[in-house]
Amino acid sequence: MSGSVSKNIRSRLAPAVRGEYLPYESSGTRVLWSLPAPKKCELIGGGSREPDLFASVMKVRTETDVRWPDQRTPADAYSDHYCLSIEGKPVGCLSMTRGLHGEIFLQEYFPPAFFDIFPDRLMSAYRFRLMPAYRRTSASIRRH
């Protein structure tokens, strides 16, 4: 049933955003989603070993959150990173850690039993950032 629900949601979302979903491979940087003209929009995924991707993620992090001068975390080294770009300019980012790859971000706040019972299912998303001009509250975003 979950496959049909996922397929149903995807079939409703794809026409709405007119984007193209691309296959993801775990190694290297990959374009996961792309929206062509009028403004090219791409979601790119990969690891911290991909210098261009990680530099884009760090650019968004440092420009959107000035609370900490160093936006790096120990989990960055073994996490998946995603960057949303519009016309080649990074405008958003998100990082995700899988429990199987190392300690997840803020693991100390999770019940220890979770890691004994669900080691292959635990993930932590962190440092979701979006440039102010692209947030819903921005006047530059057209409201429907």
Describe the 3D structure.
The protein has 144 residues and is an alpha+beta fold. It has one domain (19-134). It has helices spanning 2-17, 51-64, 112-117, and strands spanning 20-21, 30-35, 41-47, 80-86, 89-98, 123-130. Strands 1-2-3-4-5-6 form a 6-stranded antiparallel beta sheet, covered by helices on one side. A hairpin with a 2-residue loop joins β4 and β5. The longest helix has 16 residues, at 2-17. It is globular, with a radius of gyration of 17 Å. The two termini are 32 Å apart.
The N- and C-terminal alpha carbons lie at a distance of 32 Å
How much strand? 25-35%
Any idea what the radius of gyration is?
A: 17 Å
Number of domains: 1
Give, in order, the helices and strands: HEEEHEEHE
Global shape: globular
The total beta strand count reads 6
**What are the low-pLDDT stretches, counting only 5+ consecutive residues below 50?**
1-26
What level of helicity do the residues show?
Answer: 25-40%
Structural class of the secondary elements?
alpha+beta
Strand order of the largest sheet: 1-2-3-4-5-6
List the total number of helices. Answer: 3
Mean pLDDT: 77
Largest sheet geometry: 6 strands, antiparallel
